[in-house]
């Protein structure tokens, strides 16, 4: 069975470039091109959702030059994404904290999301300035604000609003995450030989299958994607000790 939702940690751009005697920025550019092709391949294979870890809250600690390059690369990618989304019938959205992003980047995100919101092909979710723990904290803050302001919220007549601590459970809390309206990932792919999640979707990956490959992200191709899916299909999916029969 093809995984409905694949999450990807696109690791190894810098190491790939270094091995070729190129600057790290060269690897990031090639990695951006790899992402475009991977989205096409995933959709043609039957995948409905792809969530990629593009820039973490920890990535700001990288050198100023590298961060500046990544932000400029992002600007170019967001502009191209409108055309790319239209040509591939792809819906694109961004998750993560937007407060720290430049004004023009935030504006470009809004334009891209609005332009692609009605497309019915692959759903591409870009985790940008994203940290899993930060996401959980932001979700909890939103819940607490609703509880504190419950009297004011009554006039909104929202069935989804939480007005007391007793209403908080796994189901209601999930709605307050950036991915609240998305299915949880079935498969996580991480490239470049690393075997950790690095603060990526810690809540959502609770029952996800993990596939690790030594290939650096710029070398990730359709054959490797097929290997990851084949690995997933061979897994005996169990939830709480009960096999998933879907």
What brief labels describe this structure?
246 residues; globular; 8 strands; two-stranded antiparallel sheet
Detail the topology: elements first, then pairings.
Elements: E1 5-9, H1 13-19, H2 24-44, E2 49-56, H3 64-88, E3 91-95, H4 103-116, E4 123-130, H5 132-148, H6 150-153, H7 170-174, E5 187-190, E6 209-212, H8 222-234, E7 238-239, E8 242-243
Helix pairs in contact: 1-2, 2-3, 3-4
Strand content: 15-25%
What is the fold named in CATH at topology level?
Undecaprenyl pyrophosphate synthetase
Question: How many β-strand runs?
Answer: 8
Corresponding CATH architecture: 3-Layer(aba) Sandwich
List low-confidence stretches.
Answer: none
Main beta-sheet strand count, sense and barrel state: 6 strands, parallel
> Any idea how many domains?
1
- What number is the mean pLDDT? 91
Query: Share of helix among residues?
Result: 40-55%
| SS field, number of helical segments | 8
Q: Please identify which CATH superfamily we are dealing with.
A: Decaprenyl diphosphate synthase-like
Shape: globular
CATH class: Alpha Beta
Order of neighbouring strands in the sheet with most strands: 3-4-2-1-5-6
Report the radius of gyration as a whole number of Å.
19 Å
Would you list the SSEs in sequence order as H and E?
Answer: EHHEHEHEHHHEEHEE
How far apart the termini lie comes to 9 Å
Q: Name the structural class.
A: alpha/beta
């Amino acid at each position: 069975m093809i995984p409905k939702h694949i999450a990807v940690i696109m690791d190894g751009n810098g190491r790939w470039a270094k091995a070729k005697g190129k600057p790290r920025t060269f690897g990031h550019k090639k990695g951006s091109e790899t992402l475009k092709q991977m989205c096409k391949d995933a959709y043609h294979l039957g995948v409905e959702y792809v969530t990629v870890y593009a820039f973490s809250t920890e990535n700001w600690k990288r050198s100023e030059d590298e961060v500046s390059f990544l932000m400029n690369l992002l600007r170019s990618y967001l502009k191209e994404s409108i055309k790319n989304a239209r040509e591939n019938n792809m819906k694109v959205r961004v998750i993560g904290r937007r407060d720290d992003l430049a004004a023009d980047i935030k504006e470009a995100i809004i334009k891209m999301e609005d332009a692609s919101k009605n497309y019915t092909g692959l759903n591409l979710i870009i985790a940008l300035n994203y940290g899993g723990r930060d996401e959980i904290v932001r979700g909890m803050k939103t819940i607490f604000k609703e509880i504190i302001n419950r009297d004011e919220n009554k006039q909104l007549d929202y069935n989804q609003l939480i007005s007391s601590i007793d209403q908080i459970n796994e189901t209601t809390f999930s709605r307050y995450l950036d991915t609240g309206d998305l299915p949880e990932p079935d498969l996580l792919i991480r490239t470049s030989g690393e075997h950790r999640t690095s603060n990526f979707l810690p809540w959502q990956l609770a029952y996800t299958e993990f596939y690790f490959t030594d290939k650096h992200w710029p070398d990730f191709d359709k054959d490797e994607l097929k290997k990851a899916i084949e690995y997933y299909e061979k897994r005996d999916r169990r939830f709480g000790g009960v096999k998933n029969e879907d």
